[in-house]
Write the structure tokens for this entry.
Amino acid sequence: MLLLLSACTPATSIQSEPAPGFALSTYRQFAFMEVKSDVENAGPDYQGHVHFLKQELTRQLEQRGLRQAPSEEQADLLINLGIVVDRQVQTRETDIISDPPRYIGQRRYTWQSKKVEVGRYSVGTVSVHLVDPVQNELVWQGTAERVISDKPEKLREQIEKGIEQLVGEIPT
């Protein structure tokens, strides 16, 4: 049963694109660029999730030999984060065989299929851009996207796994 449930959970979609000749091992210190938010109705937990995302990126990059610089000016690699949370509506179409008619008129009754809302969910996308501040060039970009949980503890687990997969795509 557990195997069946884990097979049904949506996977994280990862995309990455390095600049020609980019290798993470040529950098020593990184810093985060300011995260600007245009999120409406972000809720009180939004900043906490951004902070946790930065912590997880820091942990993963430190495991690969980099250190976090005290400031942007001292870093030889800058990280620009983009975060998008999109609310989606799941629908299905009614069917004359499985959905009984709501009204049977006296004359000229016809069946018309329509879309019915069956649920709502959120899709989260994190984009990470690594920028060389000396050359002022994007040296690597990656995105992770998945359906995200409304439960904070599950969301943190999803962030950990997604960032681990994303950082794993960075060429060393």
Q: What stands out?
A: The longest strand covers residues 115-132. Residues 46-63 form the longest helix (18 residues). Residues 39 and 101 are 41 Å apart (CA to CA).
